[in-house]
Amino acid sequence: MKKLLLVALVPVLAVLLACGGGSKKHKQPPQQKSEMTFEYIGLKDHIVVQLKAYDDEETLYAATNKGLHVLIDDEWELLTPADWNVNAIELIDQQHILASVSFPQTEKLMESLDAGETWTEVESNFGGEWPEQIRYMVYEHDDHVLYAAGKAVLAKSEDYGREWTIVYGNWWMEASGLSAIGLHSSGDIWIGGQGGIESPTFQQIKVDGEAVDHSAPIAELLPPPSVIRSIHFFPEEGKSTHSDRVLATGEGGIVHSLDYGETWLPVLLNDHSRFYFDLVIDPDNSSTLYTAGWDKNWESPQELRLEISDDAGKTWTAHRHKDDQLLGGVWSMKLRMEGEKKLLYLGLCEGGVFKVKLP
Length: 359
Prior knowledge:
Layout: H1 2-18, E1 31-33, E2 38-40, E3 44-53, E4 60-64, E5 67-72, E6 75-78, E7 85-91, E8 97-103, E9 106-112, E10 120-121, E11 136-140, E12 145-149, E13 153-157, E14 165-169, E15 177-183, E16 189-194, E17 200-205, E18 211-213, H2 215-221, E19 228-235, E20 242-250, E21 253-257, E22 265-269, E23 275-281, E24 289-294, E25 305-309, E26 317-320, E27 330-338, E28 341-351, E29 353-357
Parallel strand pairs: 1-26
Antiparallel strand pairs: 2-29, 3-4, 3-28, 4-5, 5-6, 7-8, 8-9, 9-10, 11-12, 12-13, 13-14, 15-16, 16-17, 17-18, 19-20, 20-21, 21-22, 23-24, 24-25, 25-26, 27-28, 28-29
């Protein structure tokens, strides 16, 4: 009888193992490898909140808590005073840069029309009567519309940040803050961040203005305290539109929907509330994904670990930097083409910027 019972259980066990046991607690961690070469290129002791370029071959900028920097021949040049705490930047074109900056007593939107050589303050009404921090910006080049996220508000501007119209929420609402905007090719706008009780907030604003709240199913996968940090859409093969797959990164891991928000599934989860601030989809193969995380630790060393999936997120391989004394948590990522080389830049929390040559 025991032998028959064991034989009967074998197929069931095989199915459970193939599905990951049906529980996020048993998801296999990325396999550890270290054959990637990590090259340090400066900005140690800076929090590199955003790495950005006008496109994958244009000049690379780094927005940090100690000013805005530009990369010239693998050397960083400071473009602003070092006491600028830069929250976010957006590149309207190769010369036109907008920067959200926190100063000791106020928030300002700064503008450069000469690639950062000179700056002026934008007379902006973001926040209404009192300036509110712009936490993230996205410029829609086809319609010439700038979108920005605040504490719990999404607003748009058609004059580069001077006059703002609220799209969702309101000024100065009680919340930890929005931190991600995604513009879908359908015209829908997706926003994410953290609400007032440290739970993730994730909203879809449809073209007709209807807001669909995806926060509850996201919180089941990324339980509080958690936050949405980036939103990504996948291109349809051979088309300029997006598929129905929506992916979001945040505190606790990465989740996605294959049916445009009807249902949500785990991609890469952990039990230690590790932050995943960003993710890069390979422009040549959308099944190849790159990500890296940060343990919420401001002072102690942590490993720099690049995680790569070649099967659209089903399995992951981790490539580790060997320096075990590095402040190796990643806050920002940018993939660039330099000649025939495909390079991934990683902006760390006080550990500097590293670049990795990809195969």
